[in-house]
Structures are given as C-alpha cells and as structure tokens.
Backbone:
C-alpha cells in the first residue's frame, strides 16, 4: 500500500519537512509500505520553491530518516534524472505525471532509448514497428541518397 503525503505546506505555520518525517513514520507503523512524497496544494498562500526535482529532497529525507521506501514526484522529466535520483539513493521510485501528458508513450520511449526491451515496456502490437527511435539519416542510417536513381 502506498500513501501520498504533502510533505510541506510551503506556508507559515503549516506542516514542515520535520513533520513529514513523523507523518511518514506513523503511516509506516500502520501498514503503509511506501510513501509517495508530494508537497503543497493545501493553502492558497503557499510559497513553493519550485524547480527541477524540487520535491525530491523531502522524499530523500524521509527515506534516510525512517528507512521507509519512498516515491519522488514533481518536475522530474527525463529518464536520465530518474536514473540519477535512484542510483544516488535519494528515492526508491520516481513518479512522473505531466511528462506522460506530453508524451503518453514516455515509458516506452525511455525504454527504447536505453535499449531496454522486456516485460516492463511492452509495445502494443500495432505500434511495435515504431519501437525504436526513428533513424534521422544524418548521424545514422539510412544515409540520404544524393544521386538520382534511374
Ligand atoms: C491532470 C492532473 C491531475 C492530477 N491529479 C492529482 C490527484 O488527483 N491527486 C494528487 O495527489 N496529485 C494529482 N496530480 C499531481 C501529480 O500527481 C503530480 O504530483 C504533479 O503533477 C507533479 O508531478 P509532475 O511534475 O511529474 O507533473 C495531478 C496532476 C495532473 C497534471
């Protein structure tokens, strides 16, 4: 069971990162297996410190303070960022929302770009012919034909 929390209200008098550690601990003590760490969206006068992967520090802190597995979310866009955050031990999983609205095949494309094919990225049969990045003809094949054929 995963539980999403809002780790800080980004507002004076609201919940803080320290509170979030205790909240996560309490959920884990009552059976939560993973804490999905979001922030804000609680009060209108919030002042979020928005930026690339901006909520990950809260996930990182909960993970290291409690040992409970976490999901990082928020302005994580590339598979490179996902791999970096996981390999650095800052999170156990990443969740991406808007990147999937931009590219509904985000996961399949991330797999293809990393040369992964397997049960984690199964292309629907009608799309399978597109399961590799299209060749550009500039740096890879097929090279442009520069002479007229007969
Ligand atoms: C259309 C849309 C609907 C969302 N609905 C919810 C929701 O019901 N509950 C929630 O906790 N977060 C919701 N979110 C927030 C996302 O789960 C995510 O935390 C947020 O978009 C930041 O991640 P991102 O930068 O990858 O989009 C929604 C986001 C979008 C774009």
Residues:
């Amino acid at each position: 069971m995963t539980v999403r929390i809002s780790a800080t209200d980004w507002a004076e008098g609201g919940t803080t990162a320290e509170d979030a550690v205790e909240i996560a601990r309490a959920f884990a003590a009552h059976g939560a297996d993973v804490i999905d760490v979001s922030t804000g969206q609680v009060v209108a006068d919030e002042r979020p410190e928005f930026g690339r992967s901006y909520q990950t520090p809260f996930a990182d802190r909960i993970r290291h303070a409690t040992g409970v597995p976490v999901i990082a979310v928020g302005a994580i866009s590339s598979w490179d960022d996902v791999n970096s955050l996981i390999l650095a031990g800052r999170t156990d999983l990443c969740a991406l929302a808007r990147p999937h609205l931009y590219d509904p095949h985000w996961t399949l494309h991330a797999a293809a770009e990393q040369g992964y094919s397997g049960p984690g990225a199964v292309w629907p049969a009608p799309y399978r012919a597109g399961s590799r990045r299209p060749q550009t003809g500039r740096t890879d094949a097929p090279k442009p034909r520069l002479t007229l054929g007969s």
The mean pLDDT is 95. The longest strand covers residues 2-6. Strands lie at 2-6, 34-38, 70-73, 93-95.
